[in-house]
Amino acid sequence: MRSVLVWLVRLCSLTAWVAAGVACMWLLGATAMARPWHEPLVWGAVAVGCAVVRVVALWVLRGEPKDDGFTDEFWVKLRTGVLWVLVAFASAVFAAALLTSSNAGDKLDALRDAGAEVSTAAVVVGSQYDRS
């Protein structure tokens, strides 16, 4: 049971960080998208859900961890370093998404509110002087 919980903690950590990274990358291009932005919120919810599951699993595992090869000093420092790199990246992307204000979202909202619709169009390539 203990090894299942340990791997659950690791899997939830990896999934939460990947989901947070995807949400941050999505936010980099979000200012040109029409609101509401559902996709970053979904990825953020996945990250938060995995973080909650991880906390519960760690609470169950609150005893001393057994030595499984990943608890020596090198692996602990490597995991801590990777964690702080990911936190710095996520913070920078979030700040960049919030601080870069673009009017594209407001323009798209104004067009949609004015009654603009999205439709498909056919593009005809050719010339009026085509003699075939």
Q: Could you characterize the architecture of this molecule?
A:
The protein is an all-alpha fold. It has four helices and no strands. The longest helix is centred in the N-terminal third of the chain and has 27 residues. The model has no long low-confidence stretch (mean pLDDT 75).
List the helices and strands and how they pair.
Blueprint: H1 2-28, H2 38-60, H3 73-99, H4 104-113
Fill in the keyword field for this structure.
132 residues; mainly alpha; 0% strand
Helix content: 55-70%
Instruction: Write down the secondary-structure element order.
Output: HHHH
Give the DSSP E fraction (strand runs of 2 or more residues): under 5%
Give me the secondary-structure category: mainly alpha
Mean pLDDT: 75
Low-confidence stretches: none
Q: What is the subunit organization of this protein?
A: single chain
Query: How would you characterize the largest beta sheet?
Result: none
Kindly provide the radius of gyration, computed on alpha-carbon positions and rounded to a whole number of angstroms: 24 Å
What is the end-to-end distance?
A: 76 Å
Which geometry do the CA atoms define? elongated
The total of beta strands comes to: 0
Number of helices: 4
